[in-house]
Amino acid sequence: MNLILAAVLGIAVIVLLIVWLKVHPFLALLLGSATTAVVAGVPYMQMLDSFAKGVGATIGTNTASSVGILIVLGGVIGTLLMKTGGADVIVDTITSKTSAKVLPWAMAAVAFIIGIPMFFEIGVVILIPVVMMIAKRSKQPVVLLGIPALAGLSALHAFVPPHPGPLAAISNIGGANVGLVLGLGLLVAIPSVVIAGPFLGHYMAKWVPITADQIKILDADKGSEALEKKPSFGNAISVILLPVVLMLLATVVELLGYNKAGVGMFISFLGTPLIALLVTLIVGIFSLGVAQGHKGSEINGIFGKAIESVGGILLIVAAGGGFKQTLVDSGIDKVIASGISDANMNPLFAAWLVAVLIRLATGSATVATVTASGLVAPLAAGMSPAHLALMVLAIGAGSIFLSHVNDAGFWLVKEYFGMTVKQTFMTWSLMETVLSVVGFVLVFLLSLVL
Fold this sequence. Notes:
Number of strands: 0
Distance between the termini: 37 Å
Radius of gyration: 21 Å
Strand content: under 5%
Helix content: over 70%
């Protein structure tokens, strides 16, 4: 009971600091970890030792699968696509050839495509002005187009590497294969987006019929930044799909047992996350940057912007890892695992439920994923590679459940769409919840056949 009390108080401190005092999540997680350690009986001289160890283990650079390096590379690729106009080309190409009736489906597809290499926040910044512009031109409610786009971005953030959450969960749950998580994650994400995006958005637009003309926060007529020369659609889409293809090919080669020598070994090497993203970055520099006339100083500037954009994400991911390690070293993970075991609860459902509880408490999908994956890791012992991947996806599904007032994304969507708090709950929060539940149901169904 003392350990459970320590965990509850630690989470309560984190929620209080983030929600009421508006403290940065890194500092809140640091102080929450200290609270947990002291209440759990750790001497105050060592109360942050576990936190520091968890930070280092989460974003350390001692292995080729370091979450920190992968987040940086993913951030640079996403920023390169944004700054060179590659993301604009993809959006313009798809939406310009789409009729008004299928625009919600087109926005979901656009978000799904550009969301593969881009972090959620970057995707929102790119897509929301586009949503406003298209909604104004087509005279359709912004929710009708915005919810499908947000569903696409959120699903990728929860289910598909190289996003921080899935990568951290893969690292915490030993033996999970990145390519397998990616492949199964896409299988789960696509139908989840269809249901929570265009289908649900159709009804939400009737509940919240706000038009672009009613929203003052953005100029709906303002397009993307003008560039003298933009890459072709083929160039932009190839940069997005390249790491996906490389990692999936490596997984196929490994599953067939051809990764021991020759061409198979080389394909397996190219498909390791670090190499796949590094190759993609090099290709992107030449096809999106050099080939479009960008100078070395401009490309270097893009790198600088990317590092700035991922700095905060790295801190939160690291702090989530530190809090997770505090819970693990205090023995709380064993108490939770024992309780779940005694309750004869399905391990995948247990993983989803733990992530849901941490998500509701902290408001952060990434923190929920990192912490939950560390807590339920003991339940993964003896699982097959496919079920290890499904556990990662179950945690990802739980991490996006019911975004509410302690989630920065809640307020971001509220302000961009010009909604009230109630309307934001009726749209964004409901969409996230449906995405979470549908995602878990699909994960569970896959577990029955794999």
